[in-house]
Amino acid sequence: MDDTNMMDASQPLFEGCTFTIIPTTLTQDRVIEISDNIEQCGGKVKPFDIDVGRIQGLEELDYIVSATTDFPDYYGALDVMIHVVKPAWVEDSMKINKIKNPRTYSPDPALFLSDVVVCCGDGIPEGDKEAIFGGVLAMGGQYGAQLTKLTTHLIALSMEDPRCEMAVKKRLNIKIVLPHWFNDSLKVGWRVKERPYLLPDPEIMNVEAGAIPPTTTTPGIKDATNPEPAGPPASPTSAYRAQPRAIKAFDGQKVMLGEDLNLNKDLEDVLTGMIKAGGGTVTNSVQQADIYVCNYRKGDDYVKASQSNKDVGNLSWLYFMIIHDKWTNPMRRMMHYPRPPPPGIGNFQDYKISISSYTGEARVYLENLIRALGAEFTRTFKQDNTHLITAHRNSEKCEAAEEWGVNIVNHLWLEDSYAECKEKSLTSERYTYFPPRMNMGDILGATEINRDAVRKTYFAKGKKKESEAMSNTTVGVGRSHTDGGAHTPLVEKAARRTKTAGDVATPARSRVEGKENETPGTTGSRGAKDRALSSLHDVMEDVNKYQKESKRKGGVIHGGRRRKEDEIADKETRRGGRESITSKRSIEEVEADDASTEDETEETAQKSKKARKGPITSIKHRMLVSGDKRWQGDGDKESKDKARLRELGLYILDEPKRVDFLCAPKVVRTLKFVAALADGPQLVGSEYLDYAIKHNKLPDAKKYPLDYSDFRKQHDIDLSDAVTRAKQNKHRLLKDFTIFCTQKAKFDVYKDIVAANGGKCLKWDNRTTAVTASKRKIETQPKEVSQNLEEDEGDVLYLISEPHKDEIKLWIKFRELAKKHDMVPRIVSNEWLLGVAMAQKIHWRPEWELKEEDVKTTAKK
């Protein structure tokens, strides 16, 4: 795909083009080098005056070369359609003697793949290659059909891919990652760290990878956590003093301090002295001011200053510039721009929000952002919280939030709502997805204020009354390329040609109601960029495990509608006629996951006690129901029954995870039932539910055991022994197993059963370069598990298939793969996996093996 503009071979590359170079983050030698290159190719360079700090004669320019968007004339350049490009654009254009696409070299942080050059391995299907390439282009990156020295990322499924072998052989300085890295980056709308996705041993495939790394302070929130800093700023020190080539904050600038800052005389004198020491002056006239500092986005002075394109920021921004002795864009950091006036944005005034897994400056930043939106921040997480903001889902608070029906979202929801001046919908996967092995705090503060949204909401010319503008806090413009990236006219133009990154992200799978063994397929589209809007269907099987986990039903946890049983329970609780529903965890327990001290004050504790009317019933059992048709076709009855059962302490699960009770009318071999056995649950018959619903109390489970006598006669499996073994295995029965399955053999179903038992299941489609396998060592397993692996031969590689003629062609290369890894190929029916998973031990029966002669016999019949 060509991203260049053709030039007349006889015409110098940059002839007729005028440039300026922003030197703020470049050395003097680098500036000279870029200037020489431009002039050698016929271009004209207009020097940037660092003392003035502004571009003189902006309209005369064609290109601005800058490594960052943090210079005063950035937005003005975009308004008059001047390209802003990184220094590498000059050299790369010269190499091929063609003008490269400026958009792929934009310093705009919203184009988060602008530094990426992607190549795909041979094992990636063609349709998915087009989807990846289209997404990379849409987010400002580049791709190459061939592996070169310019490649930064090689996307592959294993190190056995020929291109991976070539990269290692030639010692190329590139990152070899799973496709999941690209997919997850698009889902959250930012470039996620490559570490968990790096081959040959990606962390996301390791079920025992350990704790997720803690949050660190990111550049986006450094010295920008509080919109109202306490006390005067520190004087610039050698550590903070600006580089010689930085744009001075106050040199020649007139600063006006807004009345709503409510500064006392001493502090005002200190600030005035520091501004003057930096070469500026203080004025009381907004017309004369170059910089206006205020607290809120309201008032005549704020509107006039904003409409006149003056620099408008808050006290935190002013302190930042004093300390660092350099200018910075106030819209670059959330807490540097004036806050929305009360009551805030959207419906945030109705929300009570707590946070989890953030510490230090990250925690302070989020607390202040929540309050700036108009919501109530609570240090202690309780049932009456409406939202939990978390950096990842591995915490006690998240588990409690799932049980309580509290929304679990990442911090991007807060930042995007604040940047866009309107409450963002939780139906966007961007706000409810948590990439595996990633701490979302890594991208904290990366979102910038949306200039156009602020203008339209608070100071657009032609508004009838300012009061109307202040009250209409939900009006704004959406992001042009993602749901949360920074908005610029450059990106907006590109967005008219390509769809959004939110669309690029792989749609999450959702289980079809009532069909336990079915998952919907994915759709495709035409063209590289259109394909980028579809799912990366063939290579995203493992990441879908995480997606499905994050899509579990149960309240509006992930942007969906709240469960009816929860709504009914809440209504009844408010009427005082029912007991409240709570988790088995205490408030002290769900606070234990945060390092900071968050003790409730006595006053808060008293209010909490007063709010509780009646006794609280904790969740005693977590039950999965399978094969029971009592609620089929009657959603209202299902909602009422489940709500009543929760009041009794019985929580009905929708997915097989952490199951205490497994309930069914008889033994059924559904995905839910078989996967749930790995939890070692107590097996009860449907009569247990009959009694509980009829008598409004939970019976003794021992009185209603599941009758599995017929199943034992048919399959020679004692489920009571299986449950005992499951408790020993603790989801490690298939650990170190790589099991292959064909699509016709219901890969989408059996991969989840394999995963529930700690194994890895891969789709087999004859691509030997895309997979790896290795011998298993039973002695590495704990004793309680190894006793259930005695019949594992260690060197057998399994392929689950079907006895059909179309499948035979898949068996040949599979056998070749096994022999390549010095393993014994064994092609089996699905009965092998069902027998192993339901018995919770590795064993073998000859009738499970598939052979070519079996297919012929089946065909004759």
UniProtKB/TrEMBL annotation:
This is BRCT domain-containing protein. GO terms for cellular component: Cul8-RING ubiquitin ligase complex; nucleus. The lineage of its organism: Eukaryota, Fungi, Dikarya, Ascomycota, Pezizomycotina. Residues 563-588, 627-639 have a biased composition (Basic and acidic residues). It comes from the Eukaryota. PANTHER family: REGULATOR OF TY1 TRANSPOSITION PROTEIN 107. Residues 216-240, 462-531, 545-639 are annotated as: Disordered. Residues 589-603 have a biased composition (Acidic residues). SUPFAM superfamilies: BRCT domain (SSF52113). Gene3D superfamilies: BRCT domain. GO terms for biological process: DNA double-strand break attachment to nuclear envelope; double-strand break repair. Residues 9-107, 107-199, 348-418 form the BRCT domain. It comes from Karstenula rhodostoma CBS 690.94. Residues 550-562, 607-623 have a biased composition (Basic residues). SMART domains: BRCT. It holds the Pfam family PTCB-BRCT.
